[in-house]
């Protein structure tokens, strides 16, 4: 899910940037520093939308760098366990398939794919029901539920399932169940 | 920013609206709303810089692609109306956005996707039905 949240951060700025454009420099640095980063606590920072306040700077002893406390608003993407979302399949293999929802990668293991769907190693590897009515392959759109998340320093990785009511392939008549 | 490492970490579960202390009061955004925000920012960046690609992070690009593909409502007015309809029913922010993103068609589907919706006796089937009809109408006349 995408959220709009307030975050704060201490920015260190070199004295050469001090002058009439100090505020612009700080905002540019903020955007450069935080956009595209990911933390386990707040998820992926997609875009800074507004800078709320810039506090008064504090000169660091010895270096001349100044630290400014900055409060800003941003759009973040944070997946949650139990959340249901839509995603695009990026890779299919016999262990399961990978899907992408915005910046986050989700793996759906073949244990979490309904039992009536089997792996087919055709030209385009896919999961298919025996009657062929539902077929999941690369670029399919799939609705899934997140059952677990793993967080490391720069990435969030999710495990998903499509073995539940109203999950699975979407945009395909009769395939949504 | 006091560290709260002493407290036990409550396990998060979106189906019961346990989002952790950072997000429980945060404003959620529907995909359609994110699409509006990012699209605007993308256009601004293109105007400002000669080489927009250097300014845009991979996370931004992938998010934009994603919300463009999955936003159910294109028209900004429609997006606003959807949010109005959903908040009128005293739903939690998170529930509002899940329903706005997934557009369930039946009451059964809505209950399966947002299990918390019937908890605490806030909504009965009739109310959900009316809400879903309202949403379908907005979509139709978008």
UniProtKB/TrEMBL annotation, chain A:
Q: Where in the cell? A: Nucleus
Query: What domain of life does the native source organism fall in?
Result: Eukaryota
Task: Supply the Gene3D superfamilies for this chain.
Answer: Nucleic acid-binding proteins, RNA polymerase Rpb7-like, N-terminal domain
- Family (UniProt): Belongs to the eukaryotic RPB7/RPC8 RNA polymerase subunit family.
- Principal location listed in the UniProt entry: nucleus
InterPro entries, from UniProt? NA-bd_OB-fold, RNA_pol_Rpb7-like_N_sf, Rpb7-like, Rpb7-like_N, S1_domain
Q: Print the keywords alphabetically.
A: DNA-directed RNA polymerase, Nucleus, Transcription
What name does this protein carry?
DNA-directed RNA polymerase II subunit RPB7
Provide GO CC annotations from the record. P-body; RNA polymerase II, core complex
UniProtKB/TrEMBL annotation, chain B:
SUPFAM superfamilies noted in UniProt = HRDC-like
* GO biological-process terms attached to the record: transcription initiation at RNA polymerase II promoter
Principal location listed in the UniProt entry: nucleus
Which InterPro entries does the UniProt entry name for this protein? HRDC-like_sf, RNA_pol_Rpb4/RPC9_core, Rpb4-like, Rpb4/RPC9, Rpb4/RPC9_sf
Q: Which residues cross the membrane?
A: none
Presence of the UniProt keyword Nucleus in the record: yes
User: What GO molecular function annotation could you give as one example from this UniProt entry?
Assistant: translation initiation factor binding
Keyword set for this entry? Answer: Nucleus
Query: Can you quote a single GO CC term?
Result: RNA polymerase II, core complex
Q: Which Gene3D superfamilies match?
A: 1.20.1250.40
Which positions fall inside the RNA polymerase Rpb4/RPC9 core domain?
21-142
Has keyword Cell membrane? no
Compartments where found? Nucleus
Family membership: Belongs to the eukaryotic RPB4 RNA polymerase subunit family.
Q: What name goes with this protein?
A: RNA polymerase Rpb4/RPC9 core domain-containing protein
